[in-house]
């Protein structure tokens, strides 16, 4: 949600988003690593869960 708001702000501000007066680009750069980290954490949890249970969270087939 926060990243979407920053993207909308960039669209509204146009080239002004990279000025010191508006910090939209700075906020976007701060949000990107957080989203990447959270996604990596979720994938890591799915891999560990599959190894522990034998169940694949992305499909209905059981892993052997």
Structure description:
By secondary structure, this protein is an all-alpha fold. It has one domain. The chain is 66% helix and 0% strand. It has two helices and no strands. The termini are far apart. The model has no long low-confidence stretch (mean pLDDT 77).
Secondary-structure blueprint:
Layout lengths: L1 H12 L10 H30 L11
Short summary:
With 64 residues, this protein is mainly alpha-helical.
Q: Which segments are poorly predicted (pLDDT under 50) over 5 or more consecutive residues?
A: none
Largest sheet: none
The total number of structural domains is 1
Average residue pLDDT? 77
Percentage of residues in helical conformation: 55-70%
> Which geometry do the CA atoms define?
elongated
* Secondary-structure element pattern, one letter each: HH
Count the helices. How many?
2
Q: Separation of termini? A: 38 Å
Q: Please state the structural category.
A: mainly alpha
Structure summary, number of beta strands: 0
Radius of gyration: 19 Å
Strand content: under 5%
Oligomer: single chain
């Amino acid at each position: 949600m926060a990243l979407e708001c920053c993207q909308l702000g960039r669209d509204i501000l146009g080239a002004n988003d990279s000025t010191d007066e508006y910090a939209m680009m700075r906020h976007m750069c701060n949000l990107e690593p957080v989203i990447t980290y959270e996604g990596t954490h979720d994938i890591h949890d799915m891999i560990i869960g599959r190894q522990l249970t034998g169940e694949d969270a992305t499909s209905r087939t059981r892993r052997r």
